[in-house]
């Protein structure tokens, strides 16, 4: 059909103001998009495995996607996330990922999957479309699938516990969040006992875990594996400069074998301390792991690791009243206003001279109000 002058004017105007029906182009952002494409090309040509460059690469990909997406594309993508997660949880429950990985690189068709999972083949075809679109496996033919690296991740404890924790434990609270905030007149929550999680489950988070052993075990598994393959606090904190026996800041008379070097508060099963000792075997001083008794019972270290397990509720006064490094790597500061006040009473200041950097470590999420870290 021949375009009229009015149609041309309308089309020209759309480049300045994106249409709300989802039919839009890159508008005036072509140069920005091309710049991002060039940055991505350079990044892929000279790969850098550092976490900072990896994060920047993902950020550029997200920026480019947002430029290319229409407004309606973006809304649909966000809106579909709930259903996508539900599909992944079902496939995880059925053991589909394990079946594909067990094929050792060979493809598997939907009929074989249906037989192995005792599930309806038509249903599996529908749900596998979502899994393929998410990149969690590869479709190599009509209703034929093959495992990739992301499929494998969904068969090991780190991938399984991560996804199940967010879906099984936290999704119910997320689903109730709008209703909860409406009931609170959109005021910022200040007490864990009246949080969105408590509203959704009927219990404060830690009490809920105490009442649900399966979810408690799941959460502990998540905490124990969540940072595998990613930088940890001892990769960032200057251990050799601040804590090694050769450090000029360390008074060796205060750092003997019987003195406490580090207290890992809420350290789960002790994985961080074990990895720290393996990476820095020359550190002098005792290391103490603190967490709830049922968590400590499943500590991942042996007597040879020379780590002391100390059952402790971090909402209670801190029993270690000596100069040492207190690690709060994944405890979020100001859980509530009350907790913030209690922290000042429960976490002792050093009782002997020491560098200020030895008073405590906090996860970036606890200190940055601008850019929270990736989960």
Write the layout of secondary structure elements.
Blueprint: H1 5-16, H2 30-45, H3 51-68, H4 71-94, H5 96-102, E1 108-109, H6 110-117, H7 121-133, E2 138-141, E3 144-146, H8 149-153, H9 157-183, H10 196-201, H11 205-211, H12 213-225, H13 233-236, H14 239-242, E4 260-265, H15 271-279, E5 286-291, H16 293-296, E6 307-311, E7 325-328, H17 337-346, E8 361-362, H18 364-367
Helix pairs in contact: 2-3, 4-7, 4-9, 9-12, 11-12
Account of the protein in words:
The strands form 2 sheets. The chain has a 5-stranded parallel β-sheet with strand order 6-5-4-7-8. Strands 1-3-2 form a 3-stranded antiparallel β-sheet. Helix content is 51%, strand content 9%. Helix 4 packs across helix 7 (121-133) and helix 11 (205-211) crosses helix 12 (213-225). The chain contains 18 helices and 8 strands. It is globular. The longest helix is centred in the middle third of the chain and has 27 residues, at 157-183. It has 375 residues and is α/β, with parallel strands linked by helices.
Radius of gyration: 26 Å
Mind summarizing the main beta sheet?
A: 5 strands, parallel
Low-confidence stretches: 1-20, 329-375
In what order do the strands lie side by side in the largest sheet? 6-5-4-7-8
Q: List the helices and strands in order.
A: HHHHHEHHEEHHHHHHHEHEHEEHEH
Counting DSSP E segments of at least 2 residues, the number of strands comes to 8
- The count of helical stretches stands at 18
How far apart are the first and last residues' alpha carbons, in Å?
51 Å
The 3D shape can be described as: globular
Q: What is the overall pLDDT average?
A: 77
Give the structural class: alpha/beta
User: What is the percent of helical residues?
Assistant: 40-55%
């Amino acid at each position: 059909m021949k375009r009229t002058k009015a149609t041309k004017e309308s089309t020209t105007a759309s480049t300045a103001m994106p249409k709300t029906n989802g039919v839009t182009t890159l508008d005036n952002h072509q140069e920005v998009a091309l710049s991002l494409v060039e940055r991505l090309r350079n990044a892929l040509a000279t790969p850098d495995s550092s976490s900072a460059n990896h994060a920047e690469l993902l950020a550029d990909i997200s920026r480019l996607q947002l430029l290319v997406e229409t407004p309606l594309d973006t809304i649909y993508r966000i809106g579909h996330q709930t259903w996508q997660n539900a599909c992944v949880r079902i496939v995880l429950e059925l053991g589909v990922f394990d079946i594909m990985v067990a094929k050792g690189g060979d493809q598997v068709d939907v009929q074989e999957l249906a037989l192995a999972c005792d599930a309806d083949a038509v249903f599996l075809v529908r749900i596998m479309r979502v899994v393929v679109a998410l990149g969690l496996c590869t479709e190599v033919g009509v209703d034929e699938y093959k495992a990739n690296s992301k499929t494998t991740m969904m068969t090991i404890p780190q991938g399984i516990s991560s996804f199940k924790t967010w879906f099984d434990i936290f999704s119910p609270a997320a689903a109730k969040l709008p209703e909860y905030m409406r009931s609170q007149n959109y005021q910022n929550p200040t007490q864990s006992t009246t949080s969105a999680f408590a509203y959704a489950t009927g219990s404060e988070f830690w009490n809920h875990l105490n009442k649900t052993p399966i979810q408690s075990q799941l959460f502990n598994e998540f905490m124990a594996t969540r940072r595998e393959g990613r930088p940890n606090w001892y990769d960032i904190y200057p251990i050799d400069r601040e804590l090694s026996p050769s450090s000029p800041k360390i008074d060796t008379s205060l750092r003997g074998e019987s003195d406490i070097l580090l207290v890992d508060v809420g350290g789960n099963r002790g994985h961080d301390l074990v990895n720290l000792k393996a990476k820095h075997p020359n550190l002098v001083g005792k290391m103490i792991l603190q967490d709830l008794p049922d968590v400590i019972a499943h500590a991942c270290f042996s007597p040879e690791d020379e780590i002391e397990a100390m059952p402790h509720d971090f909402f209670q006064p801190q029993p270690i009243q000596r100069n040492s490094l207190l690690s709060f790597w994944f405890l979020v500061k100001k859980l509530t206003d009350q907790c913030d006040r209690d922290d000042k009473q429960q976490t002792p200041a050093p009782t002997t001279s020491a560098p200020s950097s030895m008073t405590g470590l906090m996860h970036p999420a606890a200190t940055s109000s601008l850019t929270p870290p990736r989960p």
